[in-house]
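Changelog-adjacent note: as of this version, every example in the card shows the full chain rather than a window. The one below runs 42 residues end to end.
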Amino acid sequence: MFEVHGSDSFKPHDLAKNAQTKLQALGKCGRMVGLLTALVRY
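Full-length structure tokens:
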């Protein structure tokens, strides 16, 4: 699971923030791919 070496090593808030930014990046990539595939179809 998680290795905790100190009180500052594991921050759930930072983890959630990181996941959120990754999801946002994935969403942007998905939109770009959708636009590209739509362009290719026409």
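Structural remarks: The chain has a mean pLDDT of 80.
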